């Protein structure tokens, strides 16, 4: 993995913590974070890499490869352990000028100054999350059906949503695949950023997702289990941003993509 990734200007607003005003958009959000979300295409969820012991190096590689947002999602961590891992994530995000996301715990998100806070269907309501975190934080919601996706799209407090799982995934055992049809149904119905999620990998599967009109994805194993996380991220990024997705398809047409997915 790269040891000296390129450093960019942060998209977050550390000046606010020094008492300086934050540039806000028309919704009252931190404008820099809103712009970063609007341009985001590749979102990664990862655990704290406790077994590998390489969290900081891994995060640098993923961001350098083209990941826009990284969320720490590790249900096995105690609060102090989660905060320690998130501090490493926050530093990596700032080094690369990217966003970092906290899952489920609004108190933890507040403590670490998260750019993004993400909740599931059974977690805090958007109003509750805003009460705790205020207007600056980007707020995301998981959705698993067209109805839930459209509800998130219509919620003024939600800034983005994820829809899936497109394919079944061991990271969400017991949750049936939604398939590609919900993506096609939701595509074009909202200007709000949204991400397809669940079993997506570079090549044929990502091409199938793109053919529905989806332009943003969330992945886990496609990067976390890759021998070279930076290369895996760059491969996904290239296909997402290519005018012709087939030019970066890495699997043979008509074959099943190698299972290295969310």
Automatic annotation (TrEMBL):
Cofactor note: Binds 1 Mg(2+) ion per subunit.
Residue stretches of biased makeup (Basic and acidic residues): 17-30
E.C. number(s) listed in UniProt: 2.5.1.3
Catalyzed chemical reaction(s): 2-(2-carboxy-4-methylthiazol-5-yl)ethyl phosphate + 4-amino-2-methyl-5-(diphosphooxymethyl)pyrimidine + 2 H(+) = thiamine phosphate + CO2 + diphosphate; 2-[(2R,5Z)-2-carboxy-4-methylthiazol-5(2H)-ylidene]ethyl phosphate + 4-amino-2-methyl-5-(diphosphooxymethyl)pyrimidine + 2 H(+) = thiamine phosphate + CO2 + diphosphate; 4-methyl-5-(2-phosphooxyethyl)-thiazole + 4-amino-2-methyl-5-(diphosphooxymethyl)pyrimidine + H(+) = thiamine phosphate + diphosphate
Signal peptide: none
Stored Gene3D superfamilies: Aldolase class I
UniProt binding sites for 2-[(2R,5Z)-2-carboxy-4-methylthiazol-5(2H)-ylidene]ethyl phosphate: 169-171, 199
GO CC aspect terms: cytoplasm
Record flagged with keyword Metal-binding: yes
Domain Thiamine phosphate synthase/TenI: start-end pairs: 42-223
GO biological process, one term: thiamine biosynthetic process
Cofactor: Mg(2+)
Residue positions binding Mg(2+): 104, 123
Single GO MF descriptor: magnesium ion binding
Magnesium among keywords: yes
NCBIfam families hit by this protein: thiE
Protein name according to UniProt: Thiamine-phosphate synthase
Provenance organism: Brevibacterium casei
Gene field: thiE
